[in-house]
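Second attempt. The first submission of VanZ family protein had a stray character pasted in from the spreadsheet, which I only caught after the job came back as garbage. Lesson logged: always re-copy from the clean sequence file. Corrected sequence (369 aa) follows.
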Amino acid sequence: MSARRSSSAAWLALGYAALVVYASLYPFGPWAWPAGMPWQQLFRLPWPRYWIQFDIWANAVGYLPLGLLLFVAVWRAGRPRVLAFLLGAFSCAALAYALEVTQYFVDKRVPSLGDWVLNSGGGLLGALLGLLLVGLGVLERGARWRERWFLSQGGAGLALLALWPLGLLFPPPLPLAQGQFLPALLASAAELLQDTPWAAGLPVLTGSRPSGLLAGSVTGLGLLAPCLLMLALTRQGWHRVALVFGALAVGVGMTSVSAALGFGPQQAWSWPTPSTLPGLLTGTALALLCALLPARVNAVLALPVFTALLVLVNGLAPDVYWQQSLLIWEQGAMVKLYGLTQWLGWWWPLLGLGWCMARVTASLESRAL
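This time the job returned cleanly.
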């Protein structure tokens, strides 16, 4: 098979592996040597005394996407499918074993040979699924579709776009207004510097209550920013219009899912405000206009849009109803995924800004050569 172009599967596999490490070692302490255990015993995993049905499914299914993504990443790099299968299955088994051994040192985590078997089996099934998809020609057709619609060197950007919906599960201060990390960052700094001379030097955020115009603008920017990143990855053509409306549908849908998970299915559509619809319409209209522009121009336009979103959303005053939403959200372990969706909700716009800056810089360097 001929060499293939870079794939977002490699970046997604890396991100998913980081998620597996995060979930397996959370809460990352306290760390201690297991009492009375010689070092030779560390590499032997005990068989579990009892089984929990949820753990069985979570351990097996949790590694399946990783095995599939590793297979696709290796296959897309031009390697034989057999090698992709072996690397996908073996890498999952090796990672699972390393994490199970590490759990000896983390309080409240219990290493288990049964978990390793289920994790390895899930990775094996994912790699087998990759083999099946190659045999059916699904991955080949998907690769051709990707090359028709998207630029060849946009693997990292596509992976970043795939993470955008997950960040929307964390309740933002306004619909689609991701990126309010500064209050939490200052609160953590204040706690860290408590009873030190530096604590008095930390800034105090007062914020402003969003008016109808400001609220609509922030919501519109929250939709326009990922659309511009997407258009910076996309070849020109009619499919850009479909992708913009697809981004709108994903944004609205995931916000409704977040409300349903936090407050119940009957509250899935309780999140819109009087300024939400104008903001969404404005963001969609601007994105459709930008769909007429080259990818490089969209990357440039994304820089002030991401910056404006981060500045405005971090200047919003706390809202009583939003704080109530956070309290309800924090009680749902399945919604917060050990805090992963919260981190994505905070940092995704900053990651998007960084990718667009790298894209513009690389474009300027290539034109200067």
